[in-house]
């Protein structure tokens, strides 16, 4: 990983700082904090994901990557109430995978939360 550079006077708990990715400086965010997920970190190697949303790149760290999957609309189902309480609004739908149920995040709501985190 490249070093995380703190930004003075930016104290939002979801904003770690800026990272250099192939010569581009982009924000590194705490996705777990943004979506109110467990802060428990799985020991082992971590991965950094860089995405672009609405023309703005940003990065976040994950414990593991299980690949990219296409999921048919017919395989999606509404999350149970217990999941909605744990992560309000961010989980739009879910689907079943070999490893268990997988949440599909609301990308529009996530984009707004990300923008708020690094303002």
Architecture overview:
This protein has three helices and six strands; from the N terminus they run ββαββαββα. With 119 residues, the protein is an alpha+beta fold. The strands form two sheets. A four-stranded mixed beta sheet has the order 1-2-4-3, covered by helices on one side. Strand 5 and strand 6 (100-105) form a beta hairpin. The longest helix has 11 residues, at 107-117. It starts with 14 loop residues before the first strand and ends with a helix.
List keywords for this structure.
4-stranded mixed sheet; globular; 3 helices; 119 residues; alpha+beta; two-stranded antiparallel sheet; single chain
Summed over residues and divided by their number, the pLDDT gives a mean of: 84
Q: How far apart are the termini? A: 24 Å
Helix count equals 3
Q: Approximately how much beta-strand content do the residues carry? A: 25-35%
Largest sheet: 4 strands, mixed
Number of strands: 6
* Helical content (DSSP H or I, runs of 4+): 10-25%
Give the helix/strand class.
alpha+beta
Uncertain parts: none
Radius of gyration: 15 Å
Strand adjacency order, main sheet:
1-2-4-3
**Spatial shape:** globular
Reading the helices and strands in chain order gives: EEHEEHEEH
Task: Walk me through the topology.
Layout: E1 15-21, E2 24-29, H1 31-34, E3 47-53, E4 56-62, H2 81-86, E5 91-97, E6 100-105, H3 107-117
Parallel strand pairs: 2-4
Antiparallel strand pairs: 1-2, 3-4, 5-6
In brief, what are we looking at here?
This protein has about 120 residues and is α+β, with helices and mostly antiparallel strands.
